[in-house]
Amino acid sequence: MSIAIYRSALIPTEGFIHGFPERGGGVSTGLRSSLNLGKRWGDDAENVDANRRILAAQVGYDPAQLVATRHVHGTAVWRVGEPLAADAEFDGLVCDRPGPVLGAFAADCIPLVFAEPQARVCGAAHAGWRGTVNGVAANVVARMVECGARADHIRVALGPSIGPCCFEVGPEVVAEFRAKLGEVPGLVVKGPAKDHIDLRVATRTILERAGVVHIDDAPPCTRCHPDRFFSYRRDGQAGGVHMGFIGLV
Ligand SMILES: [Zn+2]
Q1: CA nearest 202: which of 109, 129, 99?
Q2: Residue 69: what pLDDT?
Q3: Ligand 1 centroid vs 194 CA: distance in angstroms?
Q4: Exposed, middle or buried by CB within 10 Å (0-12, 13-18, 19+), for 64?
Q5: For residue 75, what are the CA distances in angstroms to 111, 136, 138, 142, 183?
Q6: For 197-240, what is each residue's pLDDT tens digit?
Q7: Centroid of ligand 1 to alpha carbon of 188 (angstroms)
């Protein structure tokens, strides 16, 4: 069974590989069935390594070229090649040379990929609500600009992630978004019980304030599609993890 890979039409097919693999086509079992790409929640590491190899073979990259760091819901961005401590934790990555494939893990959080076709720079990020509201996406843009990118040339695609339909939050979360972003139309959505936050609206707002104009922010909702996607809200840490990826070729 081949892996279904969700892709954004905004990311050029020439010069880049990218995608957001769906959950089928791997070897993990149970709620992690089957293409679980994350090790952190206790899946057998051999299964995860096998899944990463299956994905790499289908896409056509060397699995040893995958670059992924431990995510901490922070906003730090690593430029591939910079000196790196063994226990380094980054939620954003940038790269300006072919070879490395940047991975961003998520299961309801937003995996983001960034492509600047003229300067030939790419980036990836994991953004849960904390990373989103604290601006990890803008930090990736800033580090890409350091590599020669122009913000208005950068194309950003949001991968499958929890939609405004399902992202119910407490009043303290709503207050934090309002405090950091101000009153943004569509950011807070009335739910049946509590308010919902639209993380796509928040991400778009932050990216636009960073000078980005090319944004694909209409991915499917992970929680609404159990047949296609893992979801932390649905399955907790017994479930699997997706990985958005991008690389220069
Ligand atoms: Zn939903």
Answers
A1: 129
A2: 80
A3: 15
A4: exposed
A5: 13, 4, 9, 12, 22
A6: 999 999 999 999 999 999 999 999 999 999 999 999 999 999 99
A7: 15
221 CA → ligand 1 middle, Å? 5
What is the CA(227)–ligand 1 centre distance, in A?
A: 13
Q: Which residues contact 36 (CB under 8 A, 6 or more apart)?
A: 23, 26, 28, 43, 47, 48, 51, 230, 240, 241
Secondary structure letter of residue 219 according to DSSP: P
Both tokens of 158, joined, read: 């949001």
Q: Cα 103 to the chain's mean position, in Å?
A: 8
Burial of 98 (0-12, 13-18, 19+ CB in 10 A): middle
What are 127-149's pLDDT values in tens digits?
A: 999 999 999 999 999 999 999 99
CA of 223 to the centre of ligand 1 (A): 5
pLDDT at 87 over 80: no
- Residue 48 Cα to ligand 1 midpoint, Å, equals 26
Q: What's the mean pLDDT in 71-84?
A: 91
The domain 5-248 belongs to what CATH superfamily? CNF1/YfiH-like putative cysteine hydrolases (3.60.140.10)
Q: Give the chain's largest Cα–Cα span.
A: 48
pTM: 0.97
Q: How far apart are CA 92 and CA 209, in angstroms?
A: 18
Where are the chain's structural domains?
5-248
CA-to-CA distance for 98 and 96, rounded, in angstroms?
Answer: 7
d(C-alpha 102, C-alpha 159), whole Å: 14
Are residues 199 and 167 in contact, defined by beta-carbon separation less than 8 angstroms? Answer: yes
